[in-house]
């Protein structure tokens, strides 16, 4: 199709990635960001072979590999008995796959630096509130600009997804988490996400996340699950009381807890679940968390967003009109998104819920299935994000991880 004038709302990973692809294809791209300066939000995340393949297609794989921590396995055990509850190994399939844990600032920095280097315009302090036939409006109803295509990459709190052909909003999940980015401490597995569980109501985790920037220290993401409504009660009981609860379940965590001197160091994350039936409308495409959000239990959020960005750019490259591109984009991502949204919805209550039965099933059944073929291979593909192939329909081929 002819070169388009494209407005991208949101300077997160999805918005930056799709901006790079479309700019390189010759389209006139402008990114709109509500903050006065683009910046990352959050602590650590786990990049999967899916998201890493998209970064490779952008020429950025080596940059993120230099910052992240290579993850070979996910291991979880019962805090009281020590029984293994979860043991997923990427390498069980023999294809060289691995995860890469990164600080959100590292992923943001790699993409943002590429956008700046290619001189893609970013308009800051712009709160996009509405859209009408490609025209964007701010919160005062003033026009921001007219575009052939608007891409909503503004995340879980999107104001534009209500314009989707079939609109819906996330349903809050009962459990969230306290997160903190802390200095790495020896004595923990530097190649694994390690978790401790108390039934399904408490989950504690330590994830090595590499460096936020090349000269920075090695870091870890530390998290503790709780209901967001209980956060103020926990704070009122005091920091020492909370630390005592953690240490009673996982004494070795003192190496990280000693670094926390105030609740201000902890970020309360809230999660929701939703999937737009069709993440598009007239002159509007919706990608990333704005289009679909879920519990972080399977570690797919940022990876799904990058796949969306690659799919939309590929759809635009392969079709003759904006309308055709939007239809193609929705079709490309339909089954992969729905499969992993369903898996997340199914598995999350086993690890974060008030149920007394589900954690018993988890401890007795899931751990056993993880040891009997093809259980380990299925779990590895599920975590890697490839249980349903996301690559072929969006014009990508998975990177050959054995070459590393």
UniProtKB/TrEMBL annotation:
Residues 5-334 form the FAD-binding domain. The gene is ubiI_2. This is 2-octaprenylphenol hydroxylase. Its EC number is 1.14.13.-. It is an enzyme of class 1 (oxidoreductase). The keyword Flavoprotein applies. One of its GO terms (molecular function) is monooxygenase activity. Keywords: FAD, Flavoprotein, Monooxygenase, Oxidoreductase. It comes from the Bacteria. It holds the Pfam family FAD_binding_3. Gene3D superfamilies: FAD/NAD(P)-binding domain. Its cofactor is FAD. Signal peptide: none annotated. The keyword Oxidoreductase applies.
